[in-house]
Amino acid sequence: MKTASGSDAWEETLVIALKDARLRGDLRVPAGAAGIVIFAHGSGSGRLSPRNRFVAGYLFKKKIGSLLFDLLTEDEETRDAMTGAFRFDIPFLTRRLTAATDWLAARLQARKRELPLGYFGASTGAAAALTAAAEKPELIKTVVSRGGRPDLAAAALAEVRAPTFLIVGGNDTVVIKLNQDACRELRVEKGIHIVPNATHLFEEPGALEEVAAAAAQWFGRHFAAGGGA
Fold first, then answer.
1. What is the pTM of this model?
2. pLDDT digits (tens, 9 = 90+) for 166-178
């Protein structure tokens, strides 16, 4: 894959070096990309999440890049698996996400790439994505949530300036209500997409494909409105 500036394809396995952690990540940007989506995974997951990687692969085919990275270090993942110490710590996850966003923005600038950025948040990662979007309105152009907990973003919901799309499984009744309540708090262009007969992890035949298609359409439209390379 080429990694030059301009509109070339760019693919790399990397380490995001932050002040408090070194986080593993995978960056894939197709030639002529419309933008890059930064994934914020949910509880007990990471950059290797098969569901997020499926969505990222679909986006790639639609000329949208992706950054999948681990919000936690290996030691933190071990601790979280035993105690659940980090998975609902939205301020902590938000700090990691905003730091990774700044890292990517600096890397793009160094390579003379001008691409709009968006977030794709799953489960508790959706709350971190929305809170980070509220803190980074100059960088984040749009947010998509998959089976997310946007309610955990709390007061930050009213501060979000990025158009937001909430995708929920039709059989995930508790999470549907939480998303509907959170949607009412948003003061931006917004939408909810219910995937019929799908449960929380969208494991039913065709469910994840519908998630990916809906997300790609939303990102494509809002990246086009926000400019490209």
1. 0.92
2. 999 999 999 999 9
